[in-house]
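QA checklist item 7 of 12: single-chain prediction sanity check.
[x] sequence parsed
[x] length recorded as 267
[x] structure emitted
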Amino acid sequence: MTRSELIGAIRAKRSYLCVGLDTHREKIPALLRGTPEDLLTFNKAIIEATAPYCVAYKPNLAFYEQYGTDGWNVLQQTIEAIPDDCLVIADAKRGDIGSTAEAYARALFENLGADAVTVSPYMGRDAIQPFLEHKHKWTIVLGLTSNPGADDFQYHGEPALHERVIRKCAEWGSSEQLMFVVGATRPEAMKTIRSWVPEHFFLVPGVGAQGGSLSAVSEAALTPDIGLLVNSSRGIIYAGSGEDFAAKAADAAAHLQAEMARLLNKQ
């Protein structure tokens, strides 16, 4: 999905919502806690219910890889169930170099069929470039994360490590192919980061269960071309635990979409 197609989908749906498919066997409804294939049943129901309200899905690969071949098959079939007008983000956080990075990129872009992949920039350009070489695909670099441990490294240095990472990575890829992960729990930092990379999209975790504010994020980082994908995982896919779990997920997604539409109307 190209940048213009992504922006078009956002404007059509009045939404910049990304649904995180962090599907955990112990958290899905009890009636579906059996085989790995039950995860697929759950995912398909969630996708069908929420597709009208979101523009992206983000399966976290770890939740599927833990089941080996069965889990990978569930992941592939989950991606096949995602509508064509939604961006598919493989949340893999890959971070190796050379032929290893090239193999990761081929596996996720060509084999799995993802539109975007999250990557770790710790090893420098060598870890990012193999992903950027895939046309019409997105590389999403960890910029400033929302977890408590972000304080261990990301704020240290002068300039701070996250600033050096974001400014340097922006030199390697254009806003047509490169996004940044920027956590929702630090909207004051997000506003500053937006000044460094005014045209790049941000993938924003941390709204909802982690305490991030959608309105604060949007005020800090929305651009004329939107520039945001706000992810919600637990708050949507686990909104219900009974037979009506999909309807509850739809309600949660619709609530966020309505708020996003309101915020877009203020632009």
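[x] summary fact logged: Residues 245-265 form the longest helix (21 residues).
[ ] second reviewer sign-off
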